[in-house]
Amino acid sequence: MRPSGRALDQMRAVTLEPGACKYAEGSCLVKFGDTHVLCSASVEDRVPPFMRNSGKGWVTAEYGMLPRSTHTRTDREAAKGKQSGRTQEIQRLIGRSLRAITQTGKMGEITIKIDCDVLQADGGTRTAAITGSYVALYQAFQHLKRLNMIKEIPLSDSVAAISCGIYKGQPVLDLDYPEDSDCDADANFVLTGMGGIVEVQGTAEGAPFSQAQLSELLALANKGIGELAVLQRQALGL
Amino acid sequence: MRPSGRALDQMRAVTLEPGACKYAEGSCLVKFGDTHVLCSASVEDRVPPFMRNSGKGWVTAEYGMLPRSTHTRTDREAAKGKQSGRTQEIQRLIGRSLRAITQTGKMGEITIKIDCDVLQADGGTRTAAITGSYVALYQAFQHLKRLNMIKEIPLSDSVAAISCGIYKGQPVLDLDYPEDSDCDADANFVLTGMGGIVEVQGTAEGAPFSQAQLSELLALANKGIGELAVLQRQALGL
Amino acid sequence: MRPSGRALDQMRAVTLEPGACKYAEGSCLVKFGDTHVLCSASVEDRVPPFMRNSGKGWVTAEYGMLPRSTHTRTDREAAKGKQSGRTQEIQRLIGRSLRAITQTGKMGEITIKIDCDVLQADGGTRTAAITGSYVALYQAFQHLKRLNMIKEIPLSDSVAAISCGIYKGQPVLDLDYPEDSDCDADANFVLTGMGGIVEVQGTAEGAPFSQAQLSELLALANKGIGELAVLQRQALGL
Amino acid sequence: MRPSGRALDQMRAVTLEPGACKYAEGSCLVKFGDTHVLCSASVEDRVPPFMRNSGKGWVTAEYGMLPRSTHTRTDREAAKGKQSGRTQEIQRLIGRSLRAITQTGKMGEITIKIDCDVLQADGGTRTAAITGSYVALYQAFQHLKRLNMIKEIPLSDSVAAISCGIYKGQPVLDLDYPEDSDCDADANFVLTGMGGIVEVQGTAEGAPFSQAQLSELLALANKGIGELAVLQRQALGL
Amino acid sequence: MRPSGRALDQMRAVTLEPGACKYAEGSCLVKFGDTHVLCSASVEDRVPPFMRNSGKGWVTAEYGMLPRSTHTRTDREAAKGKQSGRTQEIQRLIGRSLRAITQTGKMGEITIKIDCDVLQADGGTRTAAITGSYVALYQAFQHLKRLNMIKEIPLSDSVAAISCGIYKGQPVLDLDYPEDSDCDADANFVLTGMGGIVEVQGTAEGAPFSQAQLSELLALANKGIGELAVLQRQALGL
Amino acid sequence: MRPSGRALDQMRAVTLEPGACKYAEGSCLVKFGDTHVLCSASVEDRVPPFMRNSGKGWVTAEYGMLPRSTHTRTDREAAKGKQSGRTQEIQRLIGRSLRAITQTGKMGEITIKIDCDVLQADGGTRTAAITGSYVALYQAFQHLKRLNMIKEIPLSDSVAAISCGIYKGQPVLDLDYPEDSDCDADANFVLTGMGGIVEVQGTAEGAPFSQAQLSELLALANKGIGELAVLQRQALGL
């Protein structure tokens, strides 16, 4: 029933390639099928003004799409002179998701800036970005540990994200672009490796959905996040 | 236990004052306790470029806060020259929420622009804004019906919104600012009068929350939305 | 002869509601008939760079209109990304008017930021804003005095503003929007309680006006400002 | 008493050099002492959207200062990415002043855009700009008449501007920069050749000024405008 | 002598991977050693306003760097709200270079927009971008030919670019980042496959260079461009 | 053959008027025929952040055109809110050209800011700007020497610039606007008084040009720069 022929609870082929950026302290090229996002983690030796002298660090994220990552060309945000509302929403979501599992009190007064750049987009770029950013962030902390700047990796859990939706009346896992453009409801779940909820964002695209459907979507998300957590550990050699 | 002395499932005093703007086609001054939002609906005789010749109308929203609506002054966005990411997120949410119950195919090729301006902020401005905007939108459609521009009110249901959260370990309804600043998790629910979910946005502020907690928050939201739907009908004289 | 039926030298009903903003150090909701402006005064514990170490304080103002304060909707300046020339002119005028009666050397190195937000506009928003801002500013100084941060209210006089114009060949006091859109000349006067001129801004909308007419407008302004000064004292309980 | 040694009612040496721009349809290099402003008038074959199909033309103005026209360098507005409030106020004033004497119904649906660029600034740049712009505008209309695009020069009168002020307690004519920085009150008058008032803008810099003083400043302005009107006629060979 | 151990006239390993973007009409991932640039060509069915009704097409380019393509993170231009002067210079250069070999009169009134996004930067990003863009552009024309929108590929020659410089007193070919940061002079050459000069941009970084040195750099460039032209033909299967 | 009747290797009449700005520390009004550029040099008592504590000074430039310096009016960059790519390219070129001959280590930690404002444009504005800026910069250093802030003029050579081009198949010196709009190739040369190359920027406007043609253009440039260097010395009284 799905355009891709996948089972209802089947994710796309997911790969995580850590170290994809030669210069970054941490990085990961994440692919959810034809959605490809390059995530890098850059360490900066200061925190934003509102965090100064707090003894805590900060993790933040920026997101962008290459103009021709999409089926038809999207205008370049740098040329338009501002980031869209969608871009800002996504980068705020990525930052919050990573901070939810980061023990900022144990990382020193530094900032880790995550850049998520979409090289190719086929639906689910924000969930792929969160999943890959976790790997990049972990690598950056490994780098700081090697330099003896921190004693242990200041992460309380792993974090990953997946989208689910009601497509042609059926709950399905990991929407691709054709499904995303034509679904009745769409929900992004950001969960920890241990199953805690970090973010839920569900939206009715057509008619409102029921509370039972929300539960079904969450069950699918649990399955997907379980698979992503395994791949994250493998990518990091844990 | 709550700073305001409210019961866990008790909302603040809510009032809806329709027709609060002398010139707008529809309007409502909504108060959730000390949170006051002025909502207006303006009819424009055209649709955005991507909707032209679709035979459909459009509903969109803008959101702003008066600089001194907040406990300490917030910089004016017009003076800074751009809207914050938070503002954009909120106004996109308001627009999606209203479109979810609007039969855009039955309103003609017009745009209704909702303006939500926060006069005073004590938590929950976005949920108050959605709740009041529904009243303003309804009034604007009544205005168009009086002018014989539409035959019937093109709304499939009512819509309202409420925030819930885990505060000091307990699920509570309708967070005010002191609770919002100090809660473990925060979820905004946008539901229709008939209980369908239009949007769910849950965020762990500290530790991740469980799936059982999400259900408890949703149950509280159902109660709150039920009360808001009654107030909306009363305000509109339905 | 006037659309409102007022006498030539009759002002609209004016009310001043001090303390209209729950959180601000000083505030006033001012109404000149259907023109409603919410004025707040926020105290900030620093001065702009060009005033540092001068031993003096600073008073400045910002102005904005809610998009649907006007008969037809006006674009939101925050969404357009800049303040119009008109907005900047008005906020500069408000700031100068208040500084003219403020003894900045007696207030300490603090800034008082006045926000004037037009909730409803029916002509004369800038004059209403100046009149209400004086009350908000006074309240903010009372607040500082209660905190023993200043010994006395550092204001040398009161200040208020009124517009006059040549409408259908007659000098009239306090133009409303229908008169403002159709007058031959329009002059805004900012006067102190003791009758000193702080600002005069007269503009011929159609044909130039004569020096005798300027004198007639000034005489009307004296009458109006006298009435406003009484209302200001009453509002402040002086 | 004046730093320049001038009599109280003596203007600086004023020169008007018409045709100073090789390419413009009209132009004038105006000098009020050390204040030098290059004014050009450009004819454009269309009107702004709000004037379309009105059968009327439009006159508008832009103003700028070269960064080193001032005693110490002023930041370039193009580099800062926006025009200051002061710049916008001045260019709006120039535009209004010229439109007050232009019979826009007799010029066809064209726009004349006036550019006033300050090459050197020693006080009074806006008044010099208005005085020189009139000459540039007149020349542009002469150009259109030579092309038979208009039958007669559509100007009902001439217009010029001068600043006056209370300097060390005395009313003086045509303030230069040292006087302007140190005066008690400052008023700009835009008058027609026949003595009608187009704009009055008076501001108390220190203490408020009296209504009698306003009259004295206006009397000085009349004298100055009379002299400027003669120079304008000479420059245009009328 | 060179940090990389290359001979003075030896280029880095260059690869051109056509079709690297799934959705674009033409694309190429170009690598000059550790400098990696993703070039895509997007066909748009219209031309800029200044080309309308000319019967000619248009080719233009945009350039960007991923924030962590560089050794230390570079701020994201979309977040800063503007493109730097360097970015604008480079994208203008790429556009001119491609137009120099495009027969715009034979392509119809369409625009081909080239996007060059630097994934990794080790010097010479603009020359790699031009070299790869030619391949992307050629592919886009092949695509149009397959659709019978054009009869033949409207390119009069191939084009490629290379940088040369005076490094430690010696003329060297294809500067990498360590050389670029420490050279005496730097020249970028854009040449056609037949050896014609499209652009020369030479800059003395330290002391001025001589006219003899310019000739030596040009000779090196000829060698490099010859090699690049072979690789371009191979990549396109010509 | 040239529209102006000049010989192929004949420059336009060039004049350099030092001290053209009353307030600037150095200045020069440079004319290349009908191209007039006002160059000023402003001394600022600080360096940009990236130069702090380096013991070195900085020289930088800004460039602008008056809106009606051109044959038809060009939009004002300050009104558009940004500088064009062309403007940025030119001001970066002027800055680099001047720094190439400035011994920044001998000028102290100050900045000299060059402003080049085009009063009238007939081709070659950037080359005139560089040529005049050298004179303004030299004057500013003379000013600093008179104040004993520097011991000697920290310039290693003079610098000037000229454009050459292939016009109707012939290499010509110093293109004016009619030639520039219609030439096959255009090259700007920035050379020192002793003949060293500081910058070469050659662009094929139509067909690519040959390496022999580049040499011919360089030969012409040598002749032109020789003449300019003489005029620069005369202007400075050296």
From TrEMBL, chains A, B, C, D, E, F:
Coiled-coil segments on the chain, per record: none
Enzyme class: transferase
Binding, phosphate: R86, G124, T125, R126
InterPro entries with a match to the protein in the record: ExoRNase_PH_dom1, ExoRNase_PH_dom2, ExoRNase_PH_dom2_sf, PNPase/RNase_PH_dom_sf, Ribosomal_Su5_D2-typ_SF, RNase_PH, RNase_PH_bac-type, RNase_PH_CS
Gene Ontology MF terms: 3'-5'-RNA exonuclease activity; tRNA binding; tRNA nucleotidyltransferase activity
Domain of life: Bacteria
Pfam families: RNase_PH (PF01138), RNase_PH_C (PF03725)
PROSITE patterns the record matches: RIBONUCLEASE_PH (PS01277)
EC number: 2.7.7.56
GO biological process, one term: rRNA 3'-end processing
Catalytic activity: tRNA(n+1) + phosphate = tRNA(n) + a ribonucleoside 5'-diphosphate
The Exoribonuclease phosphorolytic domain, residue ranges: 10-140, 158-223
CDD domains: RNase_PH_bact
Signal peptide: none
Keywords: Nucleotidyltransferase, RNA-binding, rRNA processing, Transferase, tRNA processing, tRNA-binding
Family (UniProt): Belongs to the RNase PH family.
Subunit structure: Homohexameric ring arranged as a trimer of dimers.
Biological function: Phosphorolytic 3'-5' exoribonuclease that plays an important role in tRNA 3'-end maturation. Removes nucleotide residues following the 3'-CCA terminus of tRNAs; can also add nucleotides to the ends of RNA molecules by using nucleoside diphosphates as substrates, but this may not be physiologically important. Probably plays a role in initiation of 16S rRNA degradation (leading to ribosome degradation) during starvation.
Stored NCBIfam families: RNasePH
Name the UniProt record assigns to this protein: Ribonuclease PH
Source organism of the structure: Oceanibaculum pacificum
Higher taxonomy: Bacteria, Pseudomonadati, Pseudomonadota, Alphaproteobacteria, Rhodospirillales
Gene that specifies this protein: rph
